[in-house]
Amino acid sequence: MCGVTGLFSTGSNPQIDLQIRRMSDTISYRGPDGDGFWVNTEKNIALGHRRLAILDLSEEGKQPMLSPSGRYVMSYNGEIYNYLTLKTDLETKGYEFRGHSDTEILLAAFETYGIKQTLEKLSGMFAIILWDRHTNTVTLIRDFLGKKPLYVGWAGKDLLVSSELKAFHTHPHFQAEINQDHLALYFRYGCVPAPHSIFKNVYQLLPGSLMNIPLKNMHAGQILLPLIEHYWDASQIIRDRSAQRLQPREEKETIDAFETLLSTCVSERMISDVPLGAFLSGGIDSSAIVALMQKQSTKPIKTYSVGFDVEGFNEAEFAKQIAHHLGTDHHELYLSSQDALDIIPSLPNIYDEPFADISQIPTYLVCKFAKEHVTVALSGDGGDELLGGYRRHFMVPPMWNKIKYCPHALRSLLSGTIGLIGSDTWNRVGAGRHPHLADSMEKLAGLMRQKDSAGVYDYLLGFWENPYAIVPDARPIDLSFKAINVEGLSFAEDMMMKDTLSYLPNDILQKGDRASMAVSLEARAPLLDRRLFEYAWTLPEYFKIRDGQGKWILREVLARHVPRDLWERPKRGFSPPLGVWLKGELREWAEHLLSKSALDSAGLNSTLIRKTWDDHCAERRNHSVRLWTVLMFQAWRDKY
User: Fold this and answer.
1) 1 pLDDT exceeds 70?
2) Per residue in 576-589, pLDDT tens?
3) Which residues of 370-386 are buried (b: 16+ CB within 10 A; e: fewer)?
4) Which residues does residue 246 pair with via DSSP β-bridges, in sequence order?
5) Using CA atoms, how far apart are residues 633 and 446, in angstroms rounded to an integer?
6) Nearest to 508 by CA among 146, 4, 27
7) Disulfide engineering: 624 pairs with which of 202, 234, 578, 617, CB 3.0-4.6 Å?
């Protein structure tokens, strides 16, 4: 795991050597084990690399690295998990390798098979900057499901590429101008979805995509979005497997096949030349990963979990029980509101652009905790999107199937009626059994307002239902994943697909990448293997959602290793008690960022936000997740 940088000038740049070093230095934590640079002053091209040594700790694994013939120069972040299979095949073709890094093998594969043909063979996570010295073309590549980030954009006449946006700020001609349209997207989703970024003229590569940039045909400031093309398309994979999902399956045989493939994905991710462990939350996904790791290990796996000192927000106790059953070397850390206070000032720097998933705090802290003992940690990321694990997947479709038969005009009327009844009234009605009934009624009213299932999904995913009321100068823009339609999918399957295309890479994986890299820890996710994704989408929905629960097949695998009574319980998110903290220890900090003057200076709707804050403090509503989007933007804006 590493940090990559690139600088490609469309004109003369006598400072290119200095600038690429400055860019790399800003993300040194992504690779504290060394740096490397390749600079061609004649062509005004430079690649930088910060190394976190995981495989082949010798100098033979150092980057940027040249391919065997010298045609390609590459700066690469990630891991190719099936590199040994590729190596065997390349050795039969006469290749002799100096070291045993996957970087060297990947470059040889590009020369032997070509870029797209090589990508078809890979299992891994990666962000790649590849310079072709024969064609004077730079190729940028992001992995299949978007585990690793890659940004590209303009700074004057120079094209900049980096794992993180903060590297762009070192360039003297970079204009850090906020794109108001993208800011509205942030307030809608709590993150800026690819291919956009928070800044004008800066883009993210989409998962499973590449960008070929012929420098001789480029001009400064050119729009880059048309250059993005998919080499692997998750929605097309789902479409191509529609016939297989209609075929009947024998349950035991299917569970066996799924477990075998998942075990292979786990085994490949356990290959490391540095200490390795795993995150263990006590939930289905991480417990299954740890169980399969421990089965394949001759010694106790190191496992890590965090808990909170607030009732109802602690899963560490469940993780401890599972760890004891599996016999892992378990470590747990209990967090307080003071731990949150201590890390909050660092969040804008860690997450690099506005980001508001409230579990970013415990995610960072568990990564920091694990890094005290290991350099690689396996996680359970990806199970919810792959196998229908979110509540919206298995709870909302039955509800919507009843609501939708009521005419939309009548639903809208009922929704408005619910809204006319004040929060205080709803909370009095729910006193005792449901003290925050107003929150639930608002959610119901929002669902009833939607015209169709696409609207329901977007509503459930959103933070502020109308972000354009927050950012008055913004204009709506289309997001490509919303327009994707695969015939024959159920409502639940459609949500799972769209979660994979957007929520997973833009929220879940961004959160994990920034948190782990901030402490120089490599996080690996077996459930995000593209082979597992392709197999899972051959399965009928009942292998994923059954009896009002998601992840049926993964539950059956886990039950073979851990008794059900240790993990069968309602799903909890990995979130801190933010609503409590905002009214207590964090109130002074929040009040400063949410003051009318601070909001007005940022160009936000201070009247609406202040009312939301007042309702939260008065305990009329729990607006913590909405307020967090504003707080994280304001804190980020103060930094950048």
Assistant:
1) no
2) 778 888 888 889 99
3) bbeebbbbbbbbbbbbb
4) none
5) 25
6) 146
7) 578
Tokens at 75, concatenated: 């700066």
For residue 37 the two structure tokens come to: 């640079």
What CA–CA distance (Å, rounded) separates 24 from 10? Answer: 21
Q: Is the pLDDT of residue 311 over 70?
A: no
CB within 8 Å of 431: residues ≥ 6 apart: none
Both tokens assigned to 622 = 């729990």
**Separation between Cα atoms, residue 465 and residue 459, nearest integer Å:** 7
- Residue 140: both structure tokens together: 């940028």
Residue whose entry in the numeric block shows the structure tokens 């939350």 = 281
Q: What is the pTM of this model?
A: 0.95
Q: Which candidate in 2, 191, 265, 367 is catalytic?
A: 2
Q: Where are the alpha helices (DSSP H) in 190-250?
A: 234-240, 242-245
Catalytic site residue 265? Answer: no
- CB-count exposure of residue 523 (10 Å: 0-12, 13-18, 19+): buried
Characterize the bridge pairing of strands 202-204 and 302-308. unpaired
Residue type, 564: R
d(CA 223, CA 203): 9
Question: What phi, psi does 421 have (nearest 5°)?
Answer: -80, 120
Torsion sign across C-alpha atoms 639, 222, 143, 455: positive
State pLDDT tens for residues 216-230.
Answer: 888 888 999 999 999
Q: How many other CB atoms are there within 10 angstroms of residue 611's CB atom?
A: 12
Beta bridge partner(s), residue 210: 141, 229
For 143-150, what is the mean pLDDT?
97
pLDDT at 10 over 70: yes
- Please give the pLDDT value at position 571: 64
State yes or no: cis peptide before 195, omega within 30 of 0: yes
Compute the average pLDDT of residues 461-473. Answer: 95
Closest CA to 370 of 515, 221, 526, 525: 515
Please report which helix (H) or strand (E) contains residue 517, including its range.
Answer: helix 510-518
What is the average per-residue pLDDT within 545-571? 93
Instruction: Please name the residues in contact with 248: beta carbons below 8 A apart, sequence gap of 6 or more.
Output: none
Q: What is the C-alpha separation between 52 and 79, in angstroms, rounded?
A: 11
Please work out, in degrees rounded to the nearest 5, the angle formed at the alpha carbon of residue 412 by the alpha carbons of 406 and 417.
Answer: 110
- Residues β-bridged to residue 214: 137
What DSSP element (H or E) covers 81? none
What gap in Å lies between CA 249 and CA 255, rounded to an integer? 10
Q: What is the pLDDT of residues 491-505, one digit of tens each?
A: 999 999 999 999 999
Cα(252)–Cα(592) distance, integer angstroms: 58
Domains, the chain, with CATH or none: 2-232 (3.60.20.10), 248-389+504-566 (3.40.50.620), 577-640 (no CATH)
List b or e across 166-184, with b for residues whose CB sees 16 or more CB atoms inside 10 angstroms: bbbebbeebeeebbebbbb
Is residue 313 over pLDDT 70?
A: no
